[in-house]
Amino acid sequence: MPLLHEELTNVIIKTFYEVYNELGYGFLEKVYQNALCIELRNKNLVVEPEKRIAVYYKEQQVGDYVVDLIVENKVLLELKAVDHINEQYENQILNYLRATDCELGLLMNFGPKPEFKRKVFENNRKRRK
Fold first, then answer.
1. Which residue, of 10, 45, 60, 87, is most buried by count of CB atoms within 10 Å of its CB?
2. Is residue 1 part of a domain?
């Protein structure tokens, strides 16, 4: 069974490693975000950086958050520059997916060792307005 948006995520992941190999470890997340945005756009992908997303509770807006990148309006990217990915960051991206129509998120860490996690949250499982 093919993975959701497999071809697109393969391009994104390859680009993540290209950026990591060029910049290495130690920069702020914003530096990696900007570089990843440049490289993805160079691959003719539509990239929306820092898109504001509303969060609802019982049909009332209770807040918002800013997603690092959305690629092709299909894949949400949450970028980190920490020692390692932990459960808190995995839960964070699942919550972000819950608040959007995106079903796929990639948690990408530009830490001492590059790492990523793929998270899926299908729209038919989301409880929102």
1. 45
2. no
